[in-house]
């Protein structure tokens, strides 16, 4: 009985992994890959840690192209998942206060997260290009839907976005088509500084491979925890009532 109870309340290690790639970045010719791991083997677990990377750098050319679009980034990310029928305070608060969503889409698994990122970039889409380093942190939000299930494994689809603060330094450069070379624009270059506005650091339409679909994950609730939270809430209400009396 103890063995059965243990197996019913835990998840095998291989079911705690997921692997993803962002289709929007592939459309921009940026190869990318991400991995995510559940922080606990408990069936009540809602928290994960992940690592995403994208890389598109130093494409070989026999000439200096007038347009440049290269990026390299590493992004660790923490996530908390919930569903709209959850009774836990975190899921309800995010749904009601942030998403303004009263509908209960029980087949979706929403998430909110925090990330840090670091990387390098080189962009030139007009007359002036910029090449430098960047570091940032921020929050991410989104949701996942089941897409297709195989006998062993499943592919889910994920929609999301990330917004945060960024610090960067760069060298501005231009392109000489006659001499086929780039030249630095020192007066337009900048040392490290904080970008004075929030940066949308990621838009995501990703395909996610799991051995167990998102439809079957992050939906079990710890009833003992819910009862304890309700008891504490009633206790706080009683204390407030006594203070007002």
What is this entry, summarized?
By secondary structure, this protein is an alpha+beta fold. It has four helices and ten strands, in the order αβαβββαββββββα. Strands 1-2-3-4-5-6-7-10 form an eight-stranded antiparallel barrel.
Q: Give the SSE order as H and E letters.
A: HEHEEEHEEEEEEH
Beta fraction: over 45%
Pick out the low-confidence regions: 1-7
Q: Please count the beta strands (DSSP E, at least 2 residues each).
A: 10
Percent helix range: 10-25%
CA-based gyration radius: 23 Å
Task: Indicate the mean pLDDT.
Answer: 85
- Strands across the major sheet, in which order? 1-2-3-4-5-6-7-10
Largest sheet: 8 strands, antiparallel, barrel
Cα end-to-end separation: 51 Å
Q: Which geometry do the CA atoms define?
A: elongated
The count of helical stretches stands at: 4
- SS-based class: alpha+beta
Task: Describe the structure in your own words.
With 245 residues, this protein is of the alpha+beta class. Helices cover 18% and strands 49% of the residues. It has an eight-stranded antiparallel beta barrel with strand order 1-2-3-4-5-6-7-10. 22% of the residues are buried.
Spell out the key features of this protein.
245 residues; 4 helices; 18% helix; disordered N terminus
List the helices and strands and how they pair.
Blueprint: H1 2-9, E1 17-22, H2 23-27, E2 32-38, E3 47-56, E4 68-82, H3 89-98, E5 109-124, E6 129-149, E7 154-176, E8 181-184, E9 190-194, E10 199-210, H4 223-244
